[in-house]
Amino acid sequence: MELRHLRYFVAVAEALHFGQAAARLRIAQPSLSHQIRQLEAEVQTTLLNRTKRHVELTEAGRLFLQESREILARADRAALIARRAARGEAGRLRVGVGFCMDQAAITAAVTAFHLRHGSIRVDVQTVAVPLQIAALRDDRLDVGFVRAPMSDPALETQIVASEPLVAALPARHRLLGKKKIALAGLANDAFLIVPRDAVPVFHDAVLRACREAGFVPHVLHEADQLPMLLGMVAAGHGVALVPAAARKTKARGVVFRALHPSAAVLQTAVAWRRDNLSPAVLDFLDIAREAFARS
Predict the structure, then answer these.
(1) pTM of the model
(2) Does residue 212 share a domain with residue 71?
(3) Element (H, E) at 170
């Protein structure tokens, strides 16, 4: 079996028409039909049911299509990596960022790394912390920005920032006249929070802070992205407790107030696999620490 057989099969499976697939592949239709028959003979099962007027995938064909797409995607990525290496672009650094992190500090770290290592591409993606942990273990990420505490025997972590929760209030909130507010004063407000499956530490910190202030918040909506959360605050849907770094966003229609007494502290940590001693990873860790220290 060769990659071309998989490409031919995917083209037919997506078009469900041999003539259209042949035109897309720029090969003759009889040749395409012959290649598909060869593939079915090799896998020893029928992948496509076809008549003169109709083509459809068998159940085996549907499963084979999923796997074929993944194999072709990996082959394409491998070719891209080889071409980049041939051009002298030594590699890439895969960075995961949890939801509701200090985007300004992370952007500063990526920028500084790029200035020092211009030949290394940095791929940044927003990933829920539980998924980041799995991706780091499985070598699908090199570095992750996560919320501490986090314990995994395969990973190393280091705290790069600690910040208190602050209140995000709509512009016409009754408590705007105060520079600091008691969290208990928000007990009767509707709350907007982050979902636990995406941001478990942040979610739990908000509920714990409210509980310690003597109330259980009335949760109206959830949002896993900080801009969306602040947007709903600005629209008057409720109030939110957010990391202090959120004040950097200068969200319109939102006013931030410190809490007195201070509520829970959120910690940002950088995580990486214990056995990943790549010079690029180690240098990025140093740069990230410096970026958060200056933030």
Answers:
(1) 0.65
(2) no
(3) strand 155-170
